[in-house]
Design brief:
single chain, alpha/beta, 6-stranded mixed beta sheet
Length: about 220
């Protein structure tokens, strides 16, 4: 289950927002605004959240560094900059500093609608949610550093994520065709075999896992445009 969504009651959806490098004044404004807002969804502040929505003051060196780090990490659904620089705020779709209730309300209303739509897709038991995960996402999020990927057509691939390597026998066409399809049950399994014994024959080749996934995402975005 996604951490940004908690279902506290049968009809209640609770979303979480956190902050980085925020001063005490803007933090107080955030907490007060969250307490008085009346939105279709419930928003709560969670200082320990590691995904979801995060508000970052980028007018400080610490904040700028955190902003870049969070954007590069890709864990948060939305990284929202807080700044006095109007051009930067508009470019990065952020909020003006000091924080104001109405712009924050508009942003949370927009994000709440998006997250509610995603939460609807994730309703159901854990197995159903797992089957909705795309294969490329599952490869990135696997708890194992070394695992095998088993495709419906019978092909297997061996991944050493700690070394950024993927081993394949007979090419990658089958894997590339499946990267953006929902994960099937048992697609990823931890294995201890060495690559040379896992993919039989001298024709097996190794590839960069991160480069493969990045290239696949770029190709998909270009095709969509």
């Amino acid at each position: 289950m996604k951490a940004w969504w908690r279902k506290s009651a049968p009809e209640e959806q609770v979303f979480h927002i956190t902050t980085r490098a925020l001063d005490s004044r803007n933090m107080q404004l955030l907490r007060t605004t969250l307490a008085v807002l009346r939105l279709p969804e419930t928003w709560r502040y969670d200082a320990d959240a590691t995904d979801g929505v995060v508000l970052v003051d980028i007018d400080t060196q610490e904040g700028k560094g955190k902003w870049r780090e969070l954007l590069a990490g890709g864990r948060f659904y939305r990284v929202v900059p807080l700044t006095r620089n109007n051009e930067l705020r508009q470019f990065a779709n952020g909020l003006a500093k000091p924080l104001r209730a109405k712009p924050l309300e508009d942003l949370l209303r927009e994000l709440g609608a998006e997250l509610s739509s995603l939460a609807e897709e994730l309703k159901g038991d854990e197995d159903t949610a797992a089957r909705q995960l795309l294969l490329c996402e599952a490869m990135v999020q696997s708890p194992h550093d070394r695992f095998g990927v088993h495709l419906p057509d019978g092909h297997w691939f061996y991944v050493e994520r700690d070394k950024d390597r993927l081993y394949a026998a007979g090419g990658l066409d089958s894997l590339l065709d499946s990267l953006f399809r929902p994960l099937h049950r048992g697609a990823i399994k931890p294995v201890k075999l060495r690559p040379e014994s896992f993919v039989s024959g001298p024709s097996s080749e190794s590839y960069s896992l991160s480069l493969l996934l990045w290239s696949a995402v770029q190709s998909r975005e270009e095709a969509a445009n």
